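Example (one chain per record):
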Amino acid sequence: MQAEKCLTFLIGPAHSGKSTQTSVVARPGLDTLVIGMANTQHPLMMARVEALKAARPTSWQHVDRPADLPSLVFAATAVHDQIIVDSLNLWLAALTVNHPAGRTAVDLLNMLNTESERMTDALRRARDAGANLIVVAAEIGASPSPPVETERAFREANGRLNQAVAAMADRVILMTAGIPTVLRGEGLSVDGTVKNDVPVKNNVSSKTNVSIKTNGPNVHSTQTGG
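Predicted structure:
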């Protein structure tokens, strides 16, 4: 089956059903690679990842925690028709944890924004190459601003990356308590599942593009940024 140039963005709170929904929105019959970013060194997370893998088609291939996610996303289009990334927030969290000690929160935010630009570019090129892309990300930041600067930098970078991916996506689906709501794109069945037998129209205006570049960001001044 030939893949379509489509990017589906699944977003929502933690444990809202995003990862499970990837199997619902995936197009059947495509050669599929799932790129997981969860830290499976933790027993609870390992059990969750193994349960997700067991529920997916046995033909799907999996790669866990690649060293360079943006590079792998684009490179995978030479082999696979469908690529699932689960998830962007865990990727940013890993970059945050591995940021060298002693560097400032501004340095961290600049690095995360640079990597986010690489990620959005990789997704755009992968879609242009003909891949069907399904990208998962958590929406965070509804609680009060965290007191630690590095946590604020991570939260800001995560929100800006989500905005950038949503702006370029053909279909955006918000998951709430296991229920999908299509924010952009077409197709909800009567049972609430997402249809894949309807064409997805890319109705994103160039005016909606979100830049994630910053010029000397002041982390203190962005505590309540939206």
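Caption: Strands lie at 6-12, 32-36, 61-64, 82-86, 132-138, 171-176, 179-184.
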